[in-house]
Amino acid sequence: MFEVAELGQSLSREEFDQQVPSLRTRLLEMQQTLLDASFPVIVLVSGSDGAGKAVLVNRLNEWFDPRYLRTLAFDDKTQDERERPDYWRFWQALPQKGHIGLYIGSWYSDPIAKRVAKTLNDIELDGYLAHIRIFERMLVEDGALVIKLWLHLSKAQQQLRLQQLEADPATAWRVTEKDKRHLALYDSFRSIAEHTLRQTSTAEAPWVVIESADPHYRDITVAEHLLERIQHHQALHTCSDTPLEDENAEAVALIHRQKTLLGNLDLTLALDKTSYQQQLEHWQGQLSLLARRAYQQRVSMVIVLEGWDAGGKGGLIRRIVPALDARNYQIIPIAVPTDEEAAHHYLWRFWRHIPRDGRVTIYDRSWYGRVLVERVEGFASRAQWLRAYSEINDFESQLVAHGTVVVKFWLHIDKDEQLKRFKEREKISYKRHKITDDDYRNRERWADYEQAVNDMVERTSTEVAPWHLIEANNKRFARIKALKTLCQQLEQQLGG
C-alpha cells in the first residue's frame, strides 16, 4: 500500500560528503526549472519521535533555495485557528505554483494524536482519514504534487536516540517529558500509524517510508526521492500548461430540461413602498438582535450572493450591513483572480476570508464562479468544473461542521428587467462605471448561463447549505425575502 525506500540503510560520512555536492547542484537546477511549472509541490514530513524530522527539514532548507521553499510546522492550534474550520490553517499554508511547501506536522498529526490519546475511536479516525483522502485528491486533481514521507524508527532505535540526545548537554534540551510519554505509547502509536498509512496511501499521493536510524542515509534518500518525484511530475506537465481532461468527465451527464428551476420562479412578486419600509425596519431589527446573539454565542455566518448582472446584489448588501456591527463583518467582492490567487487552487482565496467565530463574511460573488462564468466562458475545463461541484459541497460542509451558518442567495431577474436596469445605470453618473461591454456581451449567452445556474443549484443545494432563489425583478420584494431568510437561518442555528 505504500513505498519503502530500497537504498542501503546506512551511509558512511565519507560517502555522504561525496554525494552531497552533486545532489545539491541537481536539486537547485531542478528548483529553477520548477519556478515555471503550473503546479505546486507539497511535502509532508511525518514519522516517529526522534526520527529527525526537524533536522531533515533544516538540511533541506540548506540544500534548496529557501526563497522558493516555505517551511511550516503545525503544532497546537492558535486562538485564531481554533475559531475557524480545521482545514483553514492548512489552506493558508498551501504553496503557490512553482514553489515547494515543506511541512512538519500536517492534517495527519491531529487525528493520529487524538487516536493515541483515545479521544477518538476507530470509526471516528476513519472519518478523519476519509476526509484527508478527499482533500489530497482535490489538490492532486488541480495539478499539485503531494509527497508524503514517513520517517521510521524502531522502538529500540527511538529509545537509543532519546538517550543519546539526553546524554549530551548540548542537545539534552531537545528531550521533553512529552517525548518520554510518547516512547511509552510507541506500540499503540505504531499500530495507529500503520493503519493511517494503509488507509491514505493512494496512487496519486502514496506514503514513502524512510528508515531513519542513520541520518546520512535518511537525508540523501529523501533528497533523491524528492528530486525523482518532482522531475517526473514536471515531465508529465511539460506537454501542456492546462490540466488534462478527466477521461470520465463525459460520462457525467448534465440534465438539460425544457422547464428549469429558474423558469418556475414567479418574477411578478412585488412589494409596495409602504409595506417595504415597514418590513425593512422590522427585519433589519431582527437581524441586528440575532447577529448580537450570534456574536455572544461565537456563531459565525457566511453569506454568498450570486445572481445576474444588475440583479441587486449591491443593494441587498447595503440593506444587510446596517443591521451588523461594523467591527464584526467583512465584504469580499470577487473579481478576476490576481496573479497570487491564480497561482493557487481556486478555493484558496475564499478560505482566506472565512470568518472567525461570531463574525460575518459577505461574498459578493464567490467560489461558484468556477461552475458559472469559468464554465460558460471556457476558463475552466469540463473536468475542472465538473469536479468543482463535489469540491464545493465538501468545502461548505466543513464550514457547517464547524458551526458556521452558510446562506446562499441567487438573485434572479429576467432578461428584459436586466436591460432596463443597464439603461438606468447609464443615466446615473455614479452608477455608470458598473456597466461594461462584457455585461452586454454576456447577455448573448443568457441561455448558457441559465443552464449553468440550474446545474449549480441542483448539484450544490445540499441539506446543510441549500440555495435560496430570490425573485428579484422587484427590488423591494427581493430585499425583504433575503433579510427574512437570513433571520430564519440564523435563528435556527441559535436555537429559537
Helices and strands: which structural class? alpha/beta
According to CATH, the homologous superfamily of the largest domain is P-loop containing nucleotide triphosphate hydrolases
Helix content: 40-55%
User: Total number of β-strand segments?
Assistant: 11
Q: Please mark out the parts with pLDDT under 50 across 5 or more consecutive residues, or reply none.
A: 241-253
Record the strand order, biggest sheet.
Answer: 1-6-5-2-4-3
**Would you identify the CATH architecture of the largest domain?**
3-Layer(aba) Sandwich
Protein name: Polyphosphate:AMP phosphotransferase
InterPro entries: P-loop_NTPase, PolyP_AMP_Tfrase, PPK2-related
EC number: 2.7.4.33
GO molecular function, one term: transferase activity
Produce the secondary structure layout.
Layout: E1 3-4, H1 13-34, E2 41-47, H2 53-63, E3 69-73, H3 79-82, H4 88-93, E4 100-104, H5 109-116, H6 122-141, E5 145-152, H7 155-167, H8 177-184, H9 186-200, E6 207-211, H10 215-237, H11 273-296, E7 301-307, H12 313-320, E8 329-333, H13 339-342, H14 348-351, E9 360-364, H15 373-376, H16 382-402, E10 405-412, H17 415-426, H18 437-443, H19 446-460, E11 467-471, H20 475-494
GO molecular function: transferase activity
Protein name: Polyphosphate:AMP phosphotransferase
InterPro entries: P-loop_NTPase, PolyP_AMP_Tfrase, PPK2-related
